[in-house]
Amino acid sequence: MNQEQKIEYIAIEETDSFEYPSMETMFRPGIRYPEYPFGNELSEKTNQVYDMVRNCFVRLGYDKQNIGTRNWNPLGHLIKPGQNVFIKPNLVYDKNLSGKGIACVNTNPSVLAPVIDYVILALGSTAREGHIIVGDAPMQECDFDKMVAENGLRSLIDYYNKKHVPVKLVDCRCMTAKIHEGAWTFIEQNAPYHIVSLGEDSEFEKLNDKQLARLRKGANDTRDLFSHHHRGIHEYAVSDYLLNCDVLINMPKPKLHKKAGVTISLKNLVGISAKKEYLPHHMEGDAETGRGDAYFEKNIFKSLVADTRDKVYTASWNNRKFAAFFWRTVRSFFMKLEHLVGFDGIYDGMWIGNETIPKMVLDLNKIELYADKEGRMCNEPQRKQLIVADMIVAGQGNGPLSPTPKNAGLIAVAENCPINFDECIATLMGADVHKIPTLRAAREITGKYNFVQNEGASALMLSSRREWNMKGYRDISKSDTLGFVPIDSWKEAFNI
Q1: Are strands 175-180 and 215-216 parallel, antiparallel or unpaired?
Q2: In what helix (H) or strand (E) does residue 135 lie, and over which residues does it extend?
Q3: Domain extent listing, the chain
């Protein structure tokens, strides 16, 4: 292997404009590029987002010999005629609980528009129904229809279908949830999926039986989670839309995350899970005595809060609304007591010591690369991955549900190198990648499902910003980062 083969390139375009195009233009470009597939249907206004995505493809040298001609096909080396492409934006929630606007929560449709256009070029006349699918599995409480209507994604998909280009928009969830009178109500959906078992190759196999029994996941009955993660059995309900694709286009909205530190391309794959109840998010107990990773110091108030939380979710899961309301009230009382005596208010793995999220995220990345269309784990990679990150407006603070906007003005693109990509982007955000548990754990993966495809490769950024161009993440000085501000429980991992 020569030196050039050991370098993975990440294109980063920067702008000083932090506004997205209006959906009234259907996110069309303002320039009629020679390869543009829709004739004179252009925006009367400049569309910098479209231009930036295109410039990233140019910067990476995609189909270099045809750049500037009508035959330019930048994704042709990744996508072949007749293949299935799954485009997975980061669709989290239909609102921002911080009240600071939705732009920093979900991938904006204006970034999807040029990507879909170039997927259409790559597929050519072979684009048939089911060949281009856009989808995600947002929060169980998310109103999917409201979200895609308000942000313009539904209108964008309709635009292509009116052009007789069959692009399908899907909700990958098997279950949604609503809160009414203090209790959760769960509603089943018919999203297709396969159960994928990692068995002894799961990152959770490193835990003992007592630790596995303390795994927890949000608004779900803990007994159900344990049925999917115990000794020798570690399984996930994975969307068929992901399993059936030949190429995944991973489109994260990079932001800070209260349980993972950062969420970029690796964490974005949580959205390939059709059932959230298969996803451990923390291990109940304190890290001080080694019982868990929900919080650091051992104290009775945190234990009581955790115990009553389990009772709330178990009651909700079994449709016992009065019991759920009662235990929610009791939990709130214990949380107030904990606050009054001056503890830190950290629960449910919302801190730098969460070692459960990395295991779950890395398991899903193994599945993305190695699971075939029937959900069987194979020895060879089953699909390619293109990463296109939307950082025009990113999120800082208490993400993913309550972030505040960070005007970053970036679009970043790479292929088949999610770890290198996330290390570079996290560094630009201001993180110390060695203190982000998911990134640290990703570098420690061994075995047959190691998703570092180019072992030993280094990453260089190809950027319109001189301070970043032709540099790896280790070469970026603190003064040249974007200075994202985290919540207090993650400050140790950031250069602030």
Answers
A1: unpaired
A2: strand 132-136
A3: 3-296+346-493
